[in-house]
Amino acid sequence: MIEMIDVKKTYPNGVIAINGLNVKIKPGEFVYVVGPSGAGKSTFIKMMYREEKPTSGNILVNGVSLPSIRNSKVPLFRRNIGMVFQDFKLLQTFTVYENVAFAMEVIEKEPEEIKKRVMEVLDLVGIKHKARMLPSELSGGEQQRVAIARSIVNDPKVVIADEPTGNLDPETSWEIMNIFEEINNRGTTLVMATHNRDIVNNIKRRVIAIESGKIVRDEHRGDYGYEI
Amino acid sequence: MKFRTLLRHFRESFKNIGRNGWMTFASVSAVTVTLTLVGVFLVLMMNLNHIAGNVEKDVEVRAHIDNAANDDDIKAIGKKITEMSGIETVIFSPKDEELTNLIDDLGDNGDAFKPFEQDNPLRDVYIIKTKSPQDVIKVAKKIEGFEYIQSVKYGQGYVEKLFSFVNIARNIGIVLIVGLLFTAMFLISNTIKITIVARRKEIEIMRLVGATNNFIRWPFFLEGLWLGILGSIVPIGLISVLYYNIYKYVAPQITFKFIDFLPASPFIYQISAILIVIGAVIGIWGSLMSVRKFLKV
């Protein structure tokens, strides 16, 4: 599903973010990516959806070799993965419904199918009743639900989440995690970078810890492992 | 691209105009202000050009024929002139007619010439108009070389000055219009650029969820088109109403020989078409140029 082979990433300013990293994530897995700030977590995640290119090494996602695809083909690749961010990244001038529908419009789905499917996923994340509101009229947790709905609306095999609970209070974070578990239970691979100790320690899953651009720990049902 | 998607882009472009209300307002205002300026200048310049054309058209070549020429010679000369390139009309005016015209033109003083009716000192004349007034000098020079041509008159000295004046006026007009157009392009595209920079996040998100560059570009392209067209409505309305009224009420008051205005009927439509095209082109151009910056191509 996702494979990184001898991946190195050096930024133009000389910072080495990832330094010889190998990892394999199987279909249907639920993986936490943890580690201190500046350890390379973000770069690791960004390389998975081809926002950053590795300096050397290879990355395979859904069988696609990411370093070799052209910039213009990146959007096509991204249609097969779902993405969730700390800052939600919703289109502020679009309604909840339009935000989710947009991800289907770009792949030219039938209008009827879009209508049906969007309402379905909005129902799944529990925000159907606010479909006609703008993101600015919603709370953080609600906005994140919309973002999650958007990430899964096209049934991707992989969902990548970068600190999805970073801007949310503990209670809302749990609600969001329930949705992620539900998504993972349906067979979707989930990779989630997080700083949330409680979540990692309570919902036990595979934990990959990154420090100084390397994987320092990879446990099947691991702990967060860092003191806050 | 599927037809359905094209419809989607149209729908989306209209929605965006509403979604970005103030930004739309800013862009449309910029288009409105500059197009009004461009339009007013165009109207002025095109009318000046028209007047200049009137003045030029009045220029003609008068070829005086030697008395030694017989009827056949005169006919031959006429044929030769007609066959020259760039000639519009050739009118033969016999010397009797010339004298009558002269006497009529001078009014009461014309009587002084009456005695000459018996022994007309004037010559038969060919009056030649060229298709392009600026050819007059060239044509005159050529005819001068023909047999039995006694002299050629076209307002020597005066005509050259007139033409050089008209040419300078035209060039200044063109420079002004082009300058104004560039200013308009700069101003409008800058305004649109600012409104789109505000939407760079929007473009980034679209790319994140898998929209191709073309998919992102289309609504922006159409939005630019609508902005341009919306912005040209006020200038077109304003200029049309003003020009129509000037043509109807002011123009008839001016009786000076060469000064008349371009007829309102086709002219207003021409100006409107020009303005709407300029608006649309600049709108599209500004919008696409700005989006380009945020699409990693």
What does this structure look like?
The complex is a heterodimer of chains A (228) and B (297). Chain A has 228 residues and is an alpha/beta fold. Chain A is 32% helix and 26% strand. Chain A has 7 helices and 10 strands. A 6-stranded mixed sheet of chain A has the order 6-7-8-3-9-10, with helices on both faces. In chain A, strands 2-1-4-5 form a 4-stranded antiparallel sheet, with helices on one face. In chain A, strand 7, helix 6 (170-185) and strand 8 form a beta-alpha-beta unit. In chain A, helix 3 crosses helix 4 (111-124), helix 3 (96-105) runs parallel beside helix 5 and helix 4 (111-124) crosses helix 5 (140-152). Chain A is globular. The two termini of chain A are 32 Å apart. The model of chain A has no long low-confidence stretch (mean pLDDT 92). Chain B has 297 residues and is of the alpha+beta class. Chain B has 2 domains: 3-55 and 162-294, no CATH class; 60-154, 2-Layer Sandwich (Alpha-Beta Plaits). Chain B is built from 9 helices and 4 strands, in the order H-H-E-H-E-H-E-H-E-H-H-H-H. In chain B, strands 2-3-1-4 form a 4-stranded antiparallel sheet. In chain B, helix 1 (3-19) packs across helix 8 (213-250) and helix 2 runs antiparallel to helix 6. Chain B is elongated, with a radius of gyration of 30 Å. The mean pLDDT of chain B is 86. The chains are: A alpha/beta (228), B alpha+beta (297). Chain A binds chain B through residues 49, 71-72, 74-76, 78-79, 83, 89-94, 102-103, 105-108, 110-111, 150, 154, and chain B through 1-2, 4-5, 8, 16, 19-20, 201-202, 204-213, 215, 296-297.
